[in-house]
Amino acid sequence: MAQDTTVPKLNFEYWLDKAIEWGQATTLESQKDVCLHLPQLQEFLLQIYETLKHMDSVVAIQQFPLIGQLLGRLCWNPFVIGYDESQKTLMWCLCCLYSSEPQNPVELKANSWIRSLLCHLLSSSKWESNEAETSTFISTLGYTSADYYCHLVKNMVFSLVTELRGNQVNGLNIQGRVSASRVNAVSLFCLPLITLPDLTPLLETLLLYHGGASKEILSSEFLEAVNEAFLKKKILLPESAVFSLWLRHLPSLEKAALYLLDELSSIQINSLEEVACVIEDSLLPQAASHPAIFRIVNEIFKNALLETDGTSEVMTIIQVFIQLFLQALQNENKQHKFPLKAYFPYHHQPLVAALLRRPFELPTEHWSQHLKHISDMLKALVEDTNISSLDDLFEIWFLVARFGEWLDIAAEQLLKADVEPDALLWLLAFYYSPQNENQQRTQTMVEAQAVYSHLKMLFSCTVLSVKGLEAALPSVKAIDQCCNKHLIVHLLTNFLLFSEGGHMIAQEFIYHITKTTDTSKEVCSLLIRTAYRINHNGEENQRTVKLLNELLQKLTLKV
User: Name one GO biological process term (predicted).
Assistant: First the structure.
């Protein structure tokens, strides 16, 4: 038996020859040789793991074609798996070779082989070194091998959960029981088994576990894999575990927010109920009750809005998210609530408080006064000489834009209620053109006031024609040249929806406006938001609901 123990780094041929030579170490000579080489073999296995953990499983197998044969043989050598941490290192190496998303039958077969080896390693104990004894014991218990390993996994999970939870009392870490390296090793062990339903209690316990270490003790690979499985609905986790995952691993939170945006942008939005359902299922609005999560998600949404040039679809998603966030915030235990400043630390707090009031919290007759209060505060901020940059102006605009429900109500109140229009028109003018200088905004206000005055006079008319409306509104023919065509289109759309005479010509006139001004998507988003609010609050009669549905059906086909 060769006694040379000087081994080149990552010399797979050398160690594979040794593994074949040793077999299962059944002779005294082979046992002696195994024992002689165990320290260097363990060092070699650690080197393999350090190399593999930075590789994709497919690349690893391509680069090291002998690795499967080597690890497979070593896993069945009782002297190897019984030495120090070699068993754990072998498990780590196998985890690195496991394909999280197998693409072909070969990878599926490899995954099955890896799982069987992991089960073997996990079930290894002093009395299991004899295969005949093991089979006899399993059959005595009345189990098949498959049943046995299923119960083994459950028992193993229960044992690890008990161990980890026993290390904490009332959320405080009891030092000295479970080391950070042990917790990290457990998280790595979970990697190839994450989607097993029986493993869920262990995943939850790990995600909620907080040791005394200053650095993250769970492996980043584990956190990424759990997040990926959760986003793709391969596992179900309690809300508390998901929130803890996102709080302790920023890349997972960022991926969750971007995944939500991608998911919503890939579907045809026909109703806000559908959008709200997808957003709520993501758990992001609920998680945003924690200020740190809210601010990060808010930043991601803001960047998405900037990258898409402020498209109405992205803005609508953000506005629905905010509504769901406010609902989650109201459901929070009052003892655990954070102050508003924790969510909006750099904004004018009275304005934040006013925007956060939900419309249903106020009597309808108080809406216009509340909107005037918002408009007055906003105007004072915008005209403040301290607002010196476009970035400052954008931050103020983005704060207001997120609470789009109030903006839509402002446009409706102008026509449906007796209000002082200037403050509400200014609020809408700022929303649609925040970058306008005083002179431009003055011109926008003049145009908006002229259209508003004409619409207000026609609001009570029961009979209207398209030509009659165009004749009464000379500026309609030149909407595309207005300082703010979006504001004018918003007012006209609301007029057609909520006035008696408007119902009769709504379909023809809205199609005419959107075609002339290229605002189909914006009008479609407005109609969807209006339908959502009416369905939830029961504000209007069935005639308006029917009209909205007809308009949405036709516009959706044309967009």
Answer: nucleotide-excision repair
Residue 170 inside a domain? The answer is: no
User: Are 160 and 216 contained in the same domain?
Assistant: yes
Quick one: 523 and 375 in the same domain?
yes
Number of domains in the chain: 4
Where does a domain end: 302, 328, 345? 345
- How much is the CA Rg of the chain, to the nearest whole Å? 33
Q: Measuring CA to CA, how many Å separate 116 from each of 42, 140, 416?
A: 22, 22, 70
How far is residue 373's CA from residue 354's CA, in Å, rounded to a whole number? 8
Same domain? 435 vs 548:
yes
Neighbour tally for 462: CB within 10 Å: 9
Lowest-pLDDT choice from 12-16, 178-182, 399-403, 508-512: 178-182
Gap between the Cα atoms of 531 and 269, Å rounded: 13
Residue 267 Cα distances to 60, 274, 553, angstroms: 37, 10, 16
Tell me whether residue 169 is exposed, middle or buried, using C-beta atoms within 10 angstroms of its C-beta: 0 to 12, 13 to 18, 19 or more: exposed
Q: Evaluate whether 404 touches 529 at the Cβ level (below 8 Å).
A: yes
Q: How far apart are CA 226 and CA 342, in angstroms?
A: 28
The pLDDT of residue 150: 62
The answer to whether residues 373 and 489 belong to one domain is: yes
Q: What is the pLDDT of residues 380-416, one digit of tens each?
A: 998 876 666 788 889 999 999 999 999 999 999 999 8
Q: 336: how many CB neighbours lie within 10 A of its CB?
A: 8
Q: Which of 406, 503, 499 is nearest to 459 (CA)?
A: 499
CA distances to 88, 350, 441 from 431, rounded to whole Å, are 60, 19, 11
| Max Cα distance, the chain (Å) | 106
- Give the DSSP letter of residue 217: -
Q: What are phi and psi of 499, to 5 degrees?
A: -95, 150
pLDDT interval class at 190 (50, 70, 90)? confident
**pLDDT tens-digit profile of 277-294?**
999 999 999 999 999 999
Task: For residues 391 and 519, state if they share a domain.
Answer: yes
Which domain-ending residue is among 323, 345, 367? 345
**Residues paired with residue 169 on neighbouring β-strands, in sequence order:** 172
Q: Which helix (H) or strand (E) is 222 found in, with range?
A: helix 220-231
- What range does the domain containing 283 cover? 249-345
Terminal alpha carbon distance of the chain: 79
372 close to 380: Cβ distance less than 8 angstroms = no
Angle at 252 between CA 340 and CA 329, to 5 degrees: 25
